[in-house]
Amino acid sequence: MKKTEIAVIGGGPAGLMASLAAAEMGARVTLIDRNSRLGGQLVKQTHMFFGSEKEYASIRGIDIGKILSAEVLKNPRIETMLDSTVIGYYPDDGVLGVEVEEKTFVKIKPEKVIVATGASEKFLPFENNDLPGIYGAGAVQTLMNEHGVVPGDNVLMVGAGNIGLIVSYQLMQAGVNVKAIIDAAPNIGGYWVHASKVARLGVPIMTSYTVKAAYANELTGALERAVIWQVDNKWQPIPGTEKVLKVDVICISVGLSPLAEILWQAGCKMKYVPQLGGHVALRNENMETTVPGVYVAGDVAGVEEASSAMIEGRLAGLNAAKSLGYDNGTFNEKRREALEQLESLRSGPVGEKIRQGLAQLVS
């Protein structure tokens, strides 16, 4: 049995910031991540961030990941466990079961837990949606931005949110032909700055369209063409509006679902909130769930931008450390600053959906 003051599950933007904030207050932290390096989704994000200087504005996600990872790895109060997957939470005694390098099972007994496990990609049901050549947007980013491999020559992007628009632009930067971006919603869901970049390059963005079917090449069995069709204001397909696109890649970017299995195991009260991506834990302003000592941060707490995930992580780390009695006299100021940053990031029309979702989560 291994003991620690604070266990942070997930080494993405939220987990990194949570670990640094807790250690900054004086707590001992064990950061657990299933990957071989820290950074989470940041390691594949080549675009520059928005926001203020405090949210790493004008810095690329991959560079933010390197900055935060370096700070974590050199911090003497943070122990990092890589290639380690938390496969169980035992609520009777608050123990985490961790599989290390697929070889060893380790039990960790933390005084506090911060769950920052992120989210997984949603998929889309349509005929032959399991053909080779059909990817989630995250997989396409991994292929291109981590391994330098393009997924194909001609792409249909499904989803005009920020991820769909950003990945489309990255595909074009790599020399891939994006035939079209479609979205079943009547309006583009992402920022106009991203949409404008792809539109200027001649890529049609077709709203109120979805995928009807995909068809394979008879010889190779791989994707050869996609059939799309229009939907009405009740999301029902309109027969006779079909269009055929010759593509060898369909990239699905239709949202994320919080990876909340650990929270269910812990016995946290959960609620389905569509504005936040799915089932999320009820929590208070300190990011503490209905199970005392269990905190959440990042996409597992509600799918938002990485900037919000980082600030939520900082808030969770500060509060978890404070609950253990750590306060070097700066806690109140740091907590206030984090809350103000979150409020700013969620302000205006862009944050309306997030604010609606968060209003349902008061524990």
TrEMBL record:
One Pfam family of this chain: Pyr_redox_2
SUPFAM superfamilies: FAD/NAD(P)-binding domain
Domain FAD/NAD(P)-binding per the UniProt entry, residue ranges: 5-313
Keyword flag Oxidoreductase: yes
Gene3D superfamilies in the cross-refs: FAD/NAD(P)-binding domain
GO molecular function, one term: oxidoreductase activity
Top-rank lineage group of the source organism: Bacteria
Keyword line: Oxidoreductase
Protein name, as recorded: FAD-dependent oxidoreductase
Organism: Biomaibacter acetigenes
